[in-house]
Design goal:
With about 300 residues, the protein is mostly beta strands. It has strands spanning about 5-10, 15-25, 25-35, 55-60, 60-65, 70-75, 80-90, 90-100, 105-110, 115-120, 125-130, 135-140, 145-150, 160-165, 170-175, 180-185, 190-195, 205-210, 210-215, 220-230, 235-240, 245-250, 255-260, 265-270, 275-280, 290-295, 300-305.
């Protein structure tokens, strides 16, 4: 039975959270698993999540999962459900389970160790969640087609970027009565993901279905130099503390780039999975290590061995 890995993420302790979906006869089912830091080196990356020690199943596919704290995480399912789960004493306890979306929950984000979270769906809606009250408190409608990503500004958790198959990237400011502002990019493609710059809160990187990326300046409301870095859609973008940008793509590749100038990128590392690369995350304990997961059923730890190129 093939398991399609959908998301992967470290918490601050270095434990890994993985979500997956699989097709059993005519029914989709899902699972989530945690690999604690102490056992991470003992786990073969070809293990199915269902073979891991800390593992649980759902009756629907798990599209995405994100840590809220070192002990709690959110999952989003293909039946529109958002669940808050606590991992404690080698057990999973569901704290909140709300089916408020009318389609797949395609993306989740949150500010770590806070009570605020956001979810996006194929129903074109964004929901803001108060995890302390275990309820959604606000709904945004700014897209006409499925939402492909949500990215909170983790420094303030007030602004976020949404991207959608309708071609739009929208900047949301939750302090305002009319919170949404369309970020016009001018490309004949739709944005699939975004990442906030680690050193400039007014700059974001947008990834597109055509494999392009571009830096968007929120002060000038303009898209800068665009680079073609993948052959197919980019699923995920993430910066680390060294300003290195890692990517995950439907062309089965994951790459790491260093920004040399405003108009130039330098490829530092590339790896090819056997199927779509769906998610990635940087290791909190190692600035040059990150992990990816794929529809090929595996997750892979990567070491970027280019210290001579970096300035610490």
């Amino acid at each position: 039975m093939k398991e399609f890995l959908g998301s992967i993420e470290y918490n601050k302790n270095g434990d890994i959270l993985i979500s997956s979906s699989c097709l059993t006869y005519q029914n989709w089912s899902g699972s989530y698993a945690v690999i604690d830091k102490q056992n991470l080196t003992k786990v073969d990356s070809n293990y199915l999540p269902s073979n891991l020690k800390f593992f649980d199943t759902t009756k629907s596919g798990v599209c995405t999962a994100r840590w809220v704290s070192n002990e709690k995480f959110l999952i989003g399912t293909d039946c529109g459900k958002v669940e808050l789960i606590k991992w404690n004493d080698e057990k999973f306890n569901i704290i909140m389970s709300k089916e408020e979306h009318d389609g797949l929950v395609t993306c989740l984000d949150r500010k770590f160790n806070s009570e605020k979270a956001v979810s996006g769906s194929s129903d074109c809606r964004i929901k803001i969640w108060d995890l302390n009250e275990a309820m959604s408190v606000r709904t945004f409608r700014g897209h006409d087609y499925p939402i492909t990503s949500l990215t909170l500004n983790h420094s303030d958790a007030i602004r976020m970027i949404s991207t959608s198959e309708d071609g739009k990237a929208v900047l949301w400011d939750m302090r305002k009565s009319k919170p949404g502002f369309n970020l016009r990019h001018g490309l004949k493609s739709y944005p699939t993901c975004s990442a906030w710059s680690t050193d400039n809160s007014d700059a974001i990187v947008l990834g597109f279905a055509t494999g392009h990326i571009g830096v968007y300046d929120l002060r000038n409301m303009s898209l800068g130099t665009v680079h073609k870095i993948h052959e197919r859609a980019i699923r995920q973008l993430k910066f680390n503390s060294l300003k290195l940008l890692s990517t995950a793509s439907d062309d089965s590749a994951s790459k790491v780039y260093q920004s040399v100038s405003d108009k130039s990128l330098k490829l530092l590392y590339s790896y090819k999975h056997r199927d779509y690369v769906t998610d990635l995350d940087w290791n909190p304990d190692d600035k040059l290590s990150y992990v990816t997961c794929s529809w090929d059923g595996t997750f892979k730890n990567h070491q970027v061995n280019f210290r001579s190129h970096l300035k610490f």
